[in-house]
Amino acid sequence: MTPTPAPGRRTPLARLRGPATFLALLAAALLLLPHLLEPFRLNLLTQYLCYSIVALGIALAWGRGGMLTLGHGVYFGLGAYAMAIHLTLAATAADPLTRGRLPQFMAWSGRTELPWFWQALTHPAAAVTAALLLPAALATLLGWSVFRQRVRGAYFALLNQALAAAFVILLIGQQHLTGGSNGLTDFPVFAGHSLYTPTAQTTLYTLTVLTLAATYLLLRHLTHSRYGRLLIAIRDGEDRVRYLGYDPTWAKTLAYALSATAAGAAGALFVPVMGIISPTLIGVVPSIMMVLAVAIGGRDSLAGAAAGALIMNTAQTTFSETFTGGWTYLQGALFVVVIALAPHGLAGLAHTARAALRRPRTPAPAQETATAGSTP
What we know:
Elements: H1 12-31, H2 33-36, H3 39-64, H4 73-94, H5 104-108, H6 116-119, H7 124-147, H8 154-173, H9 175-178, E1 184-185, E2 189-190, E3 193-194, H10 198-223, H11 226-243, H12 248-274, E4 276-277, H13 284-297, H14 302-322, H15 327-341, H16 345-358
Antiparallel strand pairs: 1-4, 2-3
Helix pairs in contact: 3-10, 3-12, 3-13, 3-14, 4-7, 4-12, 7-12, 10-12, 11-12, 13-14, 13-16, 14-15, 14-16
């Protein structure tokens, strides 16, 4: 006789279903899509997956920790500009007109030597390290100083938004260092290899998929650990957690720093894929769009948040190609419909549907037939 699993315990088959689905999606993304999509569409998909990496970090900070981050464009931009500076230096060294001296926009601005932070990003490893550590360091500094003062909720969201606005103003104002409103563009080589070949585009796509998968696995492990449960407790009742003897400051700071690191990694990947970075891609509006993508997918689910970024960017491209004059209205309608019909995002809607399908149907109570006794 086969033993029946206790209520609330998952069978071995159910425990393997999640990893099997993850591996199947990863294999399909790596093995099938590069052959099914033309290079232009594959490049677009790579850009969307970069935003999915950002969405994973926001889902950790907002969905688990309750920190509404409306300024993640800052951390995305730090990673992007760190990589863009290195690629600009590599392009300058390969250009026979500049002969490895200064980028053209610096020469036009009257500079005679490279800034110190440009010189520090000459090597590819230095650029990758800076793209990860700079967002983490800024988020740690900001988070620790803010969370220890018990700033949260709308005040924390507004502070993030102000940070994004200030960062854009800084980039535009320092045109001789950052390229100003035009940003940085034209990146032909990375580590001695051309970025314009189909092989390079496929390699960037593969690297983006693997980074997305690694980020998902890391954050999923954290959310299912004791630390993840502590984050949920802080989100639902920070004062109660503090009363029980825990200090929420370090837990929230760690989640915020990890979220910023994911955004920095996404920015570093986005630059060679897109071929440009400018303040318009990292300001207040793009930061809000990143949060809206997570809301569409479901902030309580890492997979839902990543899928939300993919769905939103795909819809934006499809609407803009099909309805040139009014695609923004269709995009707004998509937001309204999803938020109105699925407050917990598409992942919450899918979870509700699965629960309804798994709910056992209770048979209707049979009519009790009273047996009348014989009358004496």
